[in-house]
Amino acid sequence: MYRNFDEIADSARILGPRRAAVLFPDDPEVMEATAEGMKEGLISPVLVGEKKHIEATAQNLHSPLEGVEVVDQSDPQKAANLCIDMVMRGKASFVVKGKILTTYLYRALIRATRELAPDQVPCTLCFHQAPSVNKIFVITDPGVNIQPDLATKEKILANAVQVFRALGCNNPRVMALGAAYLDGKPSIAAYHAKRLRSLANEGRFGKCTMVAETNLFDLFDGHYVQADLLPDIFMVPNIEAGNILVKSIDHLIGGIRQCVTVGAGLITLTPSRSDGYEARMGNLTLGIVLAERCKRG
Fold first, then answer.
1. Distance CA 93, CA 290 (A)
2. Within 10 A of 273 (CB to CB), how many other CB atoms are there?
3. Quick one: how far is CA 231 from the chain centroid?
4. What is the pTM of this model?
5. How far is Cα 144 from Cα 31, in angstroms, rounded to an integer?
6. What sections of the chain are H helices per DSSP?
7. Among 1, 21, 44, 262, which residue is least crowded by beta carbons within 10 Å?
8. 239 Cβ contact list (under 8 Å, min separation 6)
9. DSSP 119
10. Domains and CATH numbers, the chain
């Protein structure tokens, strides 16, 4: 299992280049990362969006587009659908989100997942590397599923475990986060966590270890976090909690984050709007490794 993003980047340089569908790349940092990804031999891109805006952005950055395929599509939903269809048909390894609302990409991925694997749901996986923690861990789902019920959480967890195992973690540790009590009664999040742990013990998600605790204080009985015991996958109770946790790691403890959204084996890179050039370069390398390790049959 990869311990940090540098190891992932080293692996990506060996695996690349991969065909990447870059959705609405008419943003300076998106275009710069795309151009550098080409230069480093990481990706062979096809640029999908409004051609005149793509060409203007490339010209302003002095990034030549000779030999690069550009698909002219100004409608954001049609462009997102086209990118996902390219991955479905094997014409691209993954999608890179550019200057576009993530909602369009989510819609396209939900449609494709229903078509390819009706028993699954797509979910966002935020991979984190934090100071003093010598491992990569994931938070899911802070992107697609707003208030998932138990059945949806089962599918989210199955997806996350499958991705983590594909990356070389044969027995990922999982924690379902949630308050133990609300208004003096056991919370629905605690009930879901208990049911998910029972299903995990039955082997429903493949080989994984789901801890009984639903918070880090109870897990470590104090303030010292042991990396080897830290869960590999944190499942949040809802999208709001996921966003708060992800942003807290980013801005309060100086973590490094890479977000992807996965459904039916389709890989989409979904960086935050605030992510700059360096974060987007790291996102490309994660996409390359995931596309290789999570190949669809």
1. 9
2. 10
3. 17
4. 0.95
5. 26
6. 5-15, 28-39, 51-60, 76-88, 102-116, 150-166, 188-201, 216-220, 239-252, 277-293
7. 1
8. 141, 142, 143, 144, 145, 146, 147
9. T
10. 1-120+264-297 (3.40.50.10950), 123-262 (3.40.718.10)
